[in-house]
Amino acid sequence: MSPARGTRTGKTSPTSKSAKKPEKKATKKAVVNKQSTKTRRPTDRSATGHRVDLLEAMLRIRRFEERCVELYSAAEIRGFVHLYIGEEAVAVGVNEALNPEDAVVSTYREHGHALARGIPAEAVMAEMYGRTTGCSGGRGGSMHLFDASRRFYGGNAIVAGGLPLAAGLALADRMRAHPRVTCCFFGDGAFAEGEFHETANLAALWNLPLLLVCENNLYAMGTGIERHEAQTDLAMRTASYGMVAWAVDGMDVEAVEQAARRACEAIRAGAGPHFLELRTYRFRAHSMYDPDRYRDKAEIERWKGRDPITRLMDRMREDGEPADKELAAIERRVTNEIAHAVTAAEEAPEEPVADLLRHVTSASAEVS
Amino acid sequence: MGAGQPQEQKTTYREAMREALREAMRSDDRVFLMGEDVGRYGGCFGVSLGLLEEFGPERVRDTPLSESAFVGAGIGAALAGMRPVVEIMTVNFSLLALDQILNNAATLLHMSGGQLPVPLVIRMTTGAGRQLAAQHSHSLEGWYAHIPGIRVVAPATLEDARHMLAPALADPDPVLIFEHGSLYNASGELAPPAAPVDLDHAAIRRPGTDISLITYGGSLPKTLAAADELAADGIDAEVIDLRTLRPLDDATITASVARTHRAVIIDEAWRTGSLAAEVSARIAERSFYELDAPVERVCSAEVPIPYARQLEEAALPQTSDIVAAAHRAVD
Fold first, then answer.
1. pTM for the whole thing?
2. Looking at CB atoms within 10 Å, which of A312, B32, B73, B306 has the fewest?
3. A115-142: buried (b, 16+ CB within 10 Å) or exposed (e) per residue?
4. CB contact, 8 Å: B113 with chain A?
């Protein structure tokens, strides 16, 4: 193995100027790819239009989840609900780099991934309600969203459980010579699981077309990364498997998109697995049950100052784009869409209990 | 037998399994074999010897010692339209992949509301008898038979070894095939198939009227030997090979007990919480008024299987134990 491949991250400065204070605190030896944090300035209307799309996609996730908080508090939806608020730039930026024929494997904090992938808010909300019209027919709930037609392989509630599965999807593409990418989202907590390391080894060994996207939000449930990882520089660790690994500012949707595009282009060209460590933060607790006693309020406020939505809007204003006007229109659209999703979910039928044993095996699929 | 007639041919259980794999890979290019040492080594138990040369390293794929990753990769490949056959060296090692088998393979179809069937076959060895001590000798297929969403089968004969893989691959859901390590060298005449192996039904390997001996996998030869001994004592035993451990074929068991009114269950797993316990409970539920004697169970001693030959033999169900249990039920 040529050392250049494994040490790709080493090309960038280990004390990158672009690394902001909160990141430095959590990852002492940050290896942030400089290029990927530079922001492309739009020069024409189409770039502006693209930013509007990014803004809308992020706002859809934000407003969807804010509504989930209300519905959970009102006991309309139940179970474990893990909110993505604050991390929207990751799902939206990465999804921009993916094609419809690519595959996505996700975790239990997946509303953002599902909505960014294009699963209608109505189908996701109906799933939260456990209704037949939900994207998993009411059998999955918040943690297990699936949509085979969009190659969205969900919804894994075991932190690294989706990783081997993603390797298999990528393996099938490689064996069939399909130039597709399988994108697997997981959190920093997955680094402590053997399955992450087994998969990274397998993917690099077999040169699989796999995009590993680590959402490093600095906490594995309630345990800070410096208390669960001996080495917190995740990109560097993954590079040791002989794959290209970049650390990117996960609060900057354009930086995320740019890094994901570069990675996907390389993967499609046959360069094998790529790893992105997206440094992000969840503004909310781990789940709706979590009293969030383990985090410093000042830390949360500091990260809220880097809100990916506000940040993109600020940048649009700086560039003289009509952010406020667009925002009002987007807000109206998104609000209507989610209100409609809630109404539709409330009105959707419940699956009859007689169908309890459906879908246990394919033979039981048609039992009624 | 005249020319042109299907000939019975001499083979071993190992060769029968290999031939089944060869046939599957020849007839469907979506089928590939993946596991530890399946390629260059020829398979830890010699089952895949020669397949690498015929099909190449893409389809006979050596894996790292990463059970969770390569079983999970099998699931992903199955979701993407392939027909993987994943080999795990022993059931003991399969525990490292239990998360993938239970939380993904068995669950995805249901969790996704029927969108994601997983047409995956996982093969592994099970059982004791070769002085391999505790971490290579256990019989945990009953644990897997506990799990909804998968099919669990145990080929006990040359015919099943040769012909069970095709229906397993045709099943849209995950199928786990348990091959008892002591069977690989079993040899005999392989009869041409009368019909495809039926994975929904148990097989009556020896019809009888006095007692039902219910077993599967590696215990079948011992049970048939016990039936021969019992016949010499004037007891006509029926031997049922469960063949499929999940879903259990209740009808065959119930019909047999209705004929014989006595049952012994032979299972190499530990008695506590075993498949033998499940079969026993079902007989109590469905056939209680048919019984002329309490149901007997012959299982392994409740001990991690020891290395020393005499201790290992003492721990496992033996033909003499089966004969003794049958006599308790009949006499």
1. 0.91
2. B306
3. bbbebbbbbbbbbbbbbbbbbbbbbbbb
4. yes
